[in-house]
């Protein structure tokens, strides 16, 4: 098998990728937009990427979602785990930069070892137990004391995919709300997320984690058909929304923002780095009280976003990682040589014929390719579903819910679902097309988020990138160099060898498991069998 270096000198086969990409990475935010209190008028709004912007308070549907998600979480938690995530490893360094805390090096915040020691309300702890969390992950252990400290301080927090950032910011919000009866309908915390699927998922976590908190109310601000007609607005304590819809709702006073004291941006680098989303996030922030605690979380904060992030969340405590520390050990990264684009599809069909896979996600570059692969996989008698940004909200909800529940096992999608989605049974991620930055270069951040849909919280996962032509060899090389990882090569013409190699990498990660299975039986069998 040729090495990556060897393959890069191969002539390009001339194939070009489609242009109908949903990836907007690589678009820098206009620095002028970040001037706090700078000139701003509604007339200069960027085009609203979302349609049918509407509020959606907690309702019967959300209740059902919550119970489905609760079940999925519990099911996932009780399934076997294997592999090493590094979550409890001390081998990687989490670099905590404490702004004002640095004045007091003896601050006991660093010695927090359990959820109980954080001083969380007992009803919040009950929610944690309900989720079967027994021990915080490193990011939770490091971030929570800083987040919970008074007076509230801003935070920029980074940790590997699937390491529990959601719980860190949710626990902070639950601990900061005023639950007095007269505040039950008052929005007090706001989370912005880049996709409706992620917003709904975060709402689910809030509702499970806050299940024992008396009087907690929460809801989503995402585009839906019902909400446009909802003139009463969103009168809940925690709102999770996509930036455009949330901005519209605040502007129309459907969401009263005067009492909001915490603003969280999940996938913050992505939101701040995209022209439309970034502008909307800034506008939302400008509509909130000046004293809010701003919390930014992501697995990635590329250098060019860090400066913007620091201006968005001034004087923030920062928890950062070096990019060599970002990959999750439990995710085994493979790539497969394909001489032509046609061979990519054949390879995909072979792969699915070869393995019994728990759940898997196939990432493609364009909506058109997604539909095409869906059709062709169906023709090959593989049951697959497809979700892209062009689908209506209600349709997207049905598709993702079906995938979450395990009814649909294979999801073909674009970058719209590359970030944040947490489905613990996903054992395989296929990069049918490698993510690029729109200028022909690899997009390592998106690659990392995509493969991070597997290997969640210590689980074993496999990612397979399909490579074709000189350009994509160059891209996979850029990605492996950026993260400092070795990727295992798979041949396209020897399926016995492919099978053997995949078995070997899964076995090696299980054998090397040092995962402390605090919420699961560590039998390592939920994933791929061959
Ligand atoms: N302390 C814990 N103990 C056990 N499981 C946990 C703990 N914290 C979080 N989890 C589980 O880990 C999984 C990943 O968590 P989460 O989605 O918050 O990761 P993340 O860091 O936000 O990942 P990403 O960067 O991909 O968005 C979830 O299924 C969550 O329930």
Automatic annotation (TrEMBL):
PROSITE patterns, per database record: DEAD_ATP_HELICASE, HELICASE_ATP_BIND_1, HELICASE_CTER, Q_MOTIF
Keywords noted in UniProt: ATP-binding, Helicase, Hydrolase, mRNA transport, Nuclear pore complex, Nucleotide-binding, Nucleus, Protein transport, RNA-binding, Translocation, Transport
Composition bias, Polar residues: 12-31
Motif (Q motif): 113-141
Keyword Nucleus applies: yes
UniProt GO molecular function: ATP binding; hydrolase activity; RNA binding; RNA helicase activity
Helicase ATP-binding domain span: 146-319
Source taxon at top rank: Eukaryota
Domain Helicase C-terminal: 330-506
InterPro entries recorded: DEAD/DEAH_box_helicase_dom, Helicase_ATP-bd, Helicase_C-like, P-loop_NTPase, RNA-helicase_DEAD-box_CS, RNA_helicase_DEAD_Q_motif
Localization: Nucleus membrane; Nucleus, Nuclear pore complex
GO cellular component, one term: nuclear pore
Reaction(s) catalysed (UniProt annotation): ATP + H2O = ADP + phosphate + H(+)
Residue intervals of the DEAD-box RNA helicase Q domain: 113-141
Sequence segments annotated as region (Disordered): 1-84
GO biological processes: mRNA transport; protein transport
Membrane topology label: Peripheral membrane protein
SMART domains linked: DEXDc (SM00487), HELICc (SM00490)
Chief location bin: nucleus
Name of one Pfam family that matches: Helicase_C
Function statement: ATP-dependent RNA helicase associated with the nuclear pore complex and essential for mRNA export from the nucleus. May participate in a terminal step of mRNA export through the removal of proteins that accompany mRNA through the nucleopore complex. May also be involved in early transcription.
Assigned protein family: Belongs to the DEAD box helicase family. DDX19/DBP5 subfamily.
Subunit structure: Associates with the nuclear pore complex.
Identification of the protein by name: RNA helicase
């Amino acid at each position: 098998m040729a090495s990556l270096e060897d393959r890069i000198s191969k002539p390009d086969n001339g194939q070009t990728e489609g242009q109908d990409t949903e990836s907007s990475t690589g678009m820098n935010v206009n620095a002028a937009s970040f001037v706090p209190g700078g000139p701003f008028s509604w007339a200069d709004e960027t085009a609203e990427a979302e349609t049918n912007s509407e509020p959606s308070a907690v309702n019967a549907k959300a209740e059902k979602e919550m119970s489905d998600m609760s079940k999925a979480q519990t099911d996932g938690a009780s399934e076997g785990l294997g592999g090493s995530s590094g979550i409890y490893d001390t081998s990687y360094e989490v670099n905590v930069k404490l702004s004002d805390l640095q004045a007091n090096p003896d601050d006991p915040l660093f010695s927090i070892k359990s959820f109980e020691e954080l001083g969380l309300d007992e009803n919040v702890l009950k929610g944690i137990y309900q989720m079967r969390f027994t021990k915080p992950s490193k990011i939770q252990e490091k971030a929570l004391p800083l987040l919970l400290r008074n007076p509230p301080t801003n935070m920029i927090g980074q940790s590997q995919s699937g390491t529990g950032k959601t719980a860190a910011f949710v626990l902070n919000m639950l601990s900061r709300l005023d639950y007095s009866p007269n505040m039950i309908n008052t929005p007090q915390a706001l989370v912005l997320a880049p996709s409706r699927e992620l917003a709904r998922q975060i709402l689910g976590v809030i509702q499970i984690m806050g299940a024992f908190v008396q009087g907690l109310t929460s809801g989503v601000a995402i585009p839906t058909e019902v909400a446009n007609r909802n003139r009463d607005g969103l009168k809940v304590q925690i709102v999770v929304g996509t930036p455009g819809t949330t901005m519209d709702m605040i502007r129309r006073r459907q969401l009263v923002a005067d009492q909001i004291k915490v603003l969280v941006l999940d996938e913050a680098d992505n939101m701040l780095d995209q022209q439309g989303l970034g502008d909307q996030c800034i506008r939302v922030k400008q509509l909130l009280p000046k004293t809010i605690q701003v919390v930014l979380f992501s697995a990635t904060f590329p250098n060019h976003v860090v400066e913007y992030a620091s201006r968005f969340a001034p004087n923030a405590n920062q928890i950062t990682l070096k990019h060599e520390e970002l990959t999750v050990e439990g995710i085994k990264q493979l790539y497969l040589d394909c001489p032509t684009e046609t061979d990519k599809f054949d390879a995909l069909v072979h792969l699915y014929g070869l393995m019994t896979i728990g759940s898997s996600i196939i990432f493609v570059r364009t909506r058109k390719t997604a539909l095409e692969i869906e059709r062709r996989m169906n023709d090959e008698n593989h049951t697959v579903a497809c979700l892209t940004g062009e689908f209506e909200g209600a349709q997207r909800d049905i598709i993702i819910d079906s995938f979450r529940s395990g009814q649909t096992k294979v999801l073909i999608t674009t970058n719209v679902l590359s970030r944040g989605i947490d489905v613990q049974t996903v054992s395989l991620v296929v990069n049918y097309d490698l993510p690029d930055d729109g200028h022909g270069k690899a997009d390592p951040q998106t690659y990392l988020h995509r493969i991070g849909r597997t290997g969640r919280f210590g689980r074993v996962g496999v990612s397979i990138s399909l490579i074709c032509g000189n350009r994509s060899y160059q891209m996979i090389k850029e990605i492996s160099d950026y993260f400092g990882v070795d990727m295992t090569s798979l041949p396209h013409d020897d399926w016995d060898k492919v099978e053997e190699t995949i078995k070997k990498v899964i076995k090696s990660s299980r054998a090397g498991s040092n995962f402390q299975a605090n919420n699961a039986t560590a039998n390592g069998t939920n994933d791929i069998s061959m």
